[in-house]
Amino acid sequence: MQNIPVDTNRLGSLMCVVPPEPRINMETGQVRTDRDGNVVWVVGISVRQQATRRADVIEVAIPGEPTGIQEGMRVTLAELTAVAWEIDGRKGTSFRATGIAGEGARGPAVSAPPSRSKGAGQGGSEA
To answer: How many helices (H) and strands (E) does the chain have?
Structure first.
């Protein structure tokens, strides 16, 4: 397998479309862990290309539980890599990142705190 770095600045808009969940080994039913023993979490990310209206959804594996990431939230990914794989005649590409953060957070991290802004872009205010 070859890890290929992905320049996230060239991807366009990234949005969480499937909230984080632990990756499960389908054969054993066990939660998967990485080489360091961290539980691997998977997040569905919509990638909208800058020059077109086209969007694709990719699953990104992240070590450790991402916090504060919710469906519909714009996100940033740290050290995103594409990994080409081949198993039993099947080929594909998987994606990994070292961290994820909601837009406006200080930077991608596995434990990104939830945004504390109130009602920005929510259309209304509370009394």
So the answer is: 0, 8
Which residues form the domain of 93? 2-102
Q: Which two tokens stand for residue 81?
A: 């890599």
- CATH number of the domain residue 20 falls in: 2.40.50.140
pLDDT tens digits for 80-126?
999 998 989 999 999 999 999 998 654 444 443 333 333 343 344 33
Instruction: Provide the 3-class DSSP secondary structure of residue 8.
Output: helix
Beta partners for 74?
A: 15
In a domain, 107, yes or no: no
Within a domain: 124? no
Asked if residues 57 and 46 have their Cβ atoms less than 8 Å apart, the reply is yes
